[in-house]
Fold:
Amino acid sequence: MFDQYDIIIVGGGHAGCEAALAGANMSKRVLLATMNMITIGQMSCNPAMGGVAKGQIVREIDALGGGSGIISDESMLQFRMLNKSKGPAMWSPRSQNDRMLFASKWRQMLESNPNIDFWQEMVTGLIVKEGRCIGVQTGIGLEIPSKSVILTNGTFLNGIIHIGEKQFGGGRAGERAATGLTEQLVSLGFESGRMKTGTPPRIDGRSLDYSRMEVQHGDSDPGKFSFLDTPRLTRQLPCHVTYTNPEVHHALKEGFHKSPMFNGRIRGLGPRYCPSIEDKIDRFAERDRHQLFVEPEGWDTCEIYVNGFSSSLPEDVQFRALRMVPGFENMKMFRPGYAIEYDFFQPTQLLPNLETKIVKNLFFAGQINGTTGYEEAASQGLMAGINAALQIDEKDSFILRRSDAYIGVLIDDLVNKGTKEPYRMFTSRAEYRILMRQDNADLRLTKKARDLGMGGLTERIERIRKKEEALRSISRYLTRQSVKPAEINEYLNRKGSSRLVQSVKLDNIVRRPKVHLRELREVLTCLDDFLSEYDVEFIESTEVGIKYEGYLEKEHEMAEKMNRLEEMILKEDLNYGTITSLSAEGREKLNTIRPRTLGQASRISGVSPSDISVLLIHIGR
Structure:
């Protein structure tokens, strides 16, 4: 019934969609197997993409030829660039999205690719022979052969949903859990664990009083994620903000004795940075209110997502407490919030290309690796799809360094350190975040994707050529064009910057704090005339390059020093147990993780700087 596929992807969430698209764009024959084709690309939790560090990841996915940025732009309700009051390394794009349109656009994109086939059924097992994965088994007993398999099971592996004292199997509300795979993987020698996540109740927006809430509009000049010519928003839906209060907290506390989180029924580890409302009340008892974001689910629905009110308390407790929130006095609920427990596998069992160490040709991506978030999952799916395709062609793996991309930081953290709680990306995790801004993801990564053989990048490469020319041209103009004191001193006075006493080049003015090119254009007619032919994105990127030139040079130097360690290869069969000068913990961790390079070894928890010195001597450096 089935010919052999190049890649089979198990799971149709964000990781699975990106893995399928990447494999197909690498000219591989792909099968996407999912229990329900209607939920391909489903936003299981909040209807939003991006945010702090996550927005950078979406732009990196786009730069590498992925689909998340395009789909986000095509289903956007609202756009905001977060942290604009901070330095450009912290600027993070975020969109509010139409949940149904997002999933619909993903399915359209995948179905329009002739290299992708679909199969709707539960995958219950893997076909493994002589340590290699050569296909999958389905619930009705079918065997589908393939050269590689990527597992992107999300929260479905032995998933259990908790609402108060009630619990039942499920991978998402209204969908059954996936069984069989965990047990087989454990029998093959994999270490599994349990994690938990949660979601808020969904509310009928027609029953809310928005006049009692703070309105939160999108940016007046909304941006987007994709570097391609995707549509820009011409109208936006507002979000709203409201707050809990002591009465809400008291009502919630009355149900704590029925909470599966507090009575021990949930054993999985939850996300520290996205706690449930009951967890926030318990951990931050000194606070008398918590912020709630009231977010629309789409253009053509009244359904509302209450961001900040994730809960596994009984439904009647959730209902009673929510009705005490300002604006929610007459609230009607579509469905209660719930917690979900699911299986994951420690990512230290993976190679940096996301292939498992125990079984060849088997890759893991997404929440199966202990991460949380659409963006983190999508980026892993993209990288797994690329590397599965490269492995079929017997080519070197594609590994992004920590100085290349947030995606590189994410995967490096996972495979070297593992995780004890759902892993979420933050800008603070990246050492080189000035180099890895959201505005330059295309310059950093798109040519790398082209060199891999990724198809469909012609338009992107041409755009990069134009962008590089624009950056050079604008920078050259600013370094050559002089400005006289009389032309600019009034503006400098307003900005609290020292006055000029003689003419200087414009780039020296741009380097000053609080001075911005968009404002200088209003003061200097010649500058405005010159810049009028360039995109705002190109102008902003040039300004960042000039203003932060010294910092960028320092980060480049730091990255080059670290990358020298990445070039020092450690033999696959190196027996760390025989190197007696290593610390006991260092030997144990090195033997377990088997790092490819000295740089990777240096980032393993428990491997000390003295251990790295010992390894340097051992390899003759």
Observations:
- Residues 186 and 192 are 7 Å apart (CA to CA).
- The chain has four domains: 5-198+342-452, 202-338, 458-552, 567-618.
- Residues 567-618 form a domain with the DNA polymerase; domain 1 fold (CATH 1.10.150.570).
